[in-house]
Design brief:
Order of helices and strands: HHHHHHEEEEEEEEEEEEEHEHEHEHEE
CATH class of the largest domain: Mainly Beta
Shape: extended
CATH architecture of the largest domain: Sandwich
Largest sheet: 13 strands, mixed
CATH topology of the largest domain: Jelly Rolls
Helix content: 25-40%
Number of domains: 3
Strand content: 25-35%
Number of strands: 18
Length: 337
């Protein structure tokens, strides 16, 4: 069997005679080895997103399961089936597994049958939602956020979740002291036993604020990169710019978004603009560098983006305009010399 003919087959550019040759070869030992290797390559590619924490898929096991499932469902087991030319029943399973698109489908559904599927909770721009995990822990997600978690955890099993966006966690302590780990997209990990904390994780940056209890923040693979946080600590980390710092804050201010309010405590306008972009999916333009550095302190309603913009404009004397999906923030007057 030539590689050229195989590539033509996967591109659906073969004649019926050529297809018959390829399918017959797939039913040989060499063909089985080729299919297994191709499936392994596909599952190890960058396009494949296996559920976190799950063992690597076994191509041999998946091929066997698919063949058995197709044999069990074959109508030939009950009534005779009219032969359809070169597409005969003994090679039908190979045709399904060999097609590029169907091979991907088989890999996806076969993998899902072998391993349980995590649950995923998404929130739309500007929306919040609250959910209770199987261990009794509660999570409130801010707008444009995603949480992946297991439907249940066994006794003694590490409780792991994956967060992208912003969420407030109220983690319950378990009788057997099972760890609770929050994985962030920027390779940061938060480990807790029982506590309340707020997490903001967007692309390369993360901000963690501890309300009460005790958590360990892993910012790298070395032991010295593990940071123990105390209540009132805010830790900011940007793995792209290598900016890291810790400071003391009022935790209630950082998680006030849950109560329909936004509280600013020496917050720069640049940070406010970033929050609007993350939560509402808009682009915020502040052309004045000094204005971007200006800090704000106060409380405004968090009912909608327009409510926030009105509050910023009134409370901090700003001129704010919106053009489609772009927000432009300017001073209402020039600064005095």
């Amino acid at each position: 069997m030539t590689e050229e003919l195989l590539q033509k087959y996967f591109a659906n550019q073969v004649t019926p005679d050529e297809a018959r040759r390829v399918l017959a070869w797939f039913d040989t030992e060499d063909g089985q080895t080729y299919l297994t290797g191709r499936l392994n390559d596909q599952l190890s590619s960058t396009d494949w997103h296996a559920p976190p924490g799950i063992p690597a898929p076994d191509a041999d096991q998946m091929l066997y399961a698919m063949r058995q499932r197709m044999a069990d469902r074959s109508p030939d087991r009950e009534t005779p089936v009219r032969r359809l030319g070169w597409f005969s029943r003994p090679m039908r399973w190979a045709a399904v597994l060999a097609g590029a698109l169907l091979l991907a489908t088989a890999a996806f559904f076969g993998y899902r049958e072998l391993y349980p599927v995590d649950l995923i909770q998404h929130t739309a721009y500007g929306k919040t939602t609250r959910l209770t995990l199987s261990d009794g822990s509660m999570v409130t997600l801010n707008g444009n956020s995603c949480l992946r978690y297991a439907p249940h955890w066994k006794s003694g099993q590490i409780r792991e979740v994956w967060l992208s966006g912003e969420g407030f966690f109220h983690v319950t302590h378990q009788r057997n002291h099972e760890r609770f780990v929050v994985h962030l997209p920027n390779k940061l990990n938060i480990e807790v036993l029982g506590t309340q904390f707020n997490v903001l994780a967007r692309e390369s940056r993360a901000k963690v604020v501890l309300n009460n209890g005790k958590i360990q923040l892993d910012v790298g693979e070395r032991s010295k990169d593990k940071l123990i946080m105390k209540p009132g600590d805010l830790v900011y980390a940007d793995v792209k710019t290598k900016e890291y710092y810790r400071k003391r804050v009022d935790p209630a201010t950082q998680s006030a978004w849950q109560t329909g309010k936004l509280k600013f405590e020496g917050t720069s306008l640049r940070e406010v603009a970033q929050m609007l972009e993350d939560t509402y999916g808009v682009t915020v333009v502040i052309n004045d560098p000094d204005l971007r550095r200006q800090t704000l302190s106060g409380t405004i309603p968090n009912q909608s983006m327009q409510t926030i913009l009105n509050g910023l404009s009134t409370l901090f004397d700003l001129h704010i305009t919106q053009q489609n999906n772009q927000i432009i923030i300017q001073r209402t007057s020039l600064p005095q010399p």
